[in-house]
């Protein structure tokens, strides 16, 4: 199975995260005094923000789907094979809602916030553009049970599944997703004078 993966960094992606940034800026304006940074204040600021998407992988994914009816004779009459290919976008991020208070530690001397983030997750998977499909079927399948919509739905579902597997097996991509999450969190706490560091 062949696939090619292209990686794009996403900063301030989606309306949800845009709202996250806007809310943080408003909070800065409302607090003229320097906020005291504690594990609880850090937890309150980030834990309710949901999934922070930091990476998108674009994969040219192809699949071969074959329905085996158990014998060459049955396949001759009812056999069904689908070959399909499409570009797929897989968005990855870190679920900030999984952070617990005990996952956060503060070092006032070095001005660092250490947060243990959960492993990256796939937040969404989408077909980008057209799906190229080739279908070959047994004679009776063509006459009595041909269904183009069913073939398309089966092909797109399998394409997404295979693209997700490719992303989950890409350890470098998963590592970069978490690193970028720390970078964005550091930006969001820049007004405090603290940096967010990895804690894994």
Describe the protein in words.
With 200 residues, the protein is an alpha+beta fold. The protein contains 6 helices and 7 strands. It has helices at residues 14-30, 39-46, 72-78, 139-144, 148-168, 171-188, and strands spanning 3-9, 51-67, 80-95, 104-107, 112-115, 121-137, 195-198. The two termini are 33 Å apart.
Shape call: elongated
Q: Report the biggest beta sheet as strand number plus sense, adding barrel if it closes.
A: 4 strands, antiparallel
Give the percentage of residues in beta strands. 25-35%
First-last Cα distance: 33 Å
**Which residues sit in consecutive blocks of at least 5 with pLDDT less than 50?**
10-16
Structural topology:
Blueprint: E1 3-9, H1 14-30, H2 39-46, E2 51-67, H3 72-78, E3 80-95, E4 104-107, E5 112-115, E6 121-137, H4 139-144, H5 148-168, H6 171-188, E7 195-198
Parallel strand pairs: 5-7
Antiparallel strand pairs: 1-2, 2-3, 3-6, 4-5
Q: What keywords describe this structure?
A:
200 residues, alpha+beta, 4-stranded antiparallel beta sheet, 3-stranded mixed beta sheet, 34% strand
Short description:
The chain has helices at 14-30, 39-46, 72-78, 139-144, 148-168, 171-188; strands spanning 3-9, 51-67, 80-95, 104-107, 112-115, 121-137, 195-198.
């Amino acid at each position: 199975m062949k696939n090619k993966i292209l990686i794009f960094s996403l900063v301030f992606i989606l309306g949800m995260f845009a709202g996250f940034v806007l809310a943080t800026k408003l909070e800065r304006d409302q607090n003229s005094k320097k906020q005291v940074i504690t594990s609880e204040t850090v937890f309150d600021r980030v834990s309710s923000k949901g999934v922070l998407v930091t990476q998108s992988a674009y994969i040219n994914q192809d699949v071969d789907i074959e329905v085996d009816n158990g014998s060459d004779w049955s396949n001759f009459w009812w056999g069904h094979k689908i070959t399909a290919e499409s570009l797929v976008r897989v968005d990855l991020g870190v679920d900030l809602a999984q952070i617990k208070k005990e996952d956060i530690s503060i070092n006032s001397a070095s001005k660092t916030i250490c947060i243990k983030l959960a492993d990256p997750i796939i937040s969404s998977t989408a077909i980008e553009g057209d799906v190229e499909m080739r279908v070959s079927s047994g004679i009776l399948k063509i006459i009595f049970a041909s269904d183009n919509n069913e073939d398309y739905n089966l092909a797109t579902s399998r394409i997404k599944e295979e693209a997700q597997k490719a992303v989950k097996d890409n350890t470098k991509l998963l590592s970069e997703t978490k690193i970028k999450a720390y970078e964005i969190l550091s930006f969001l706490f820049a007004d405090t004078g603290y940096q967010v560091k990895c804690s894994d």
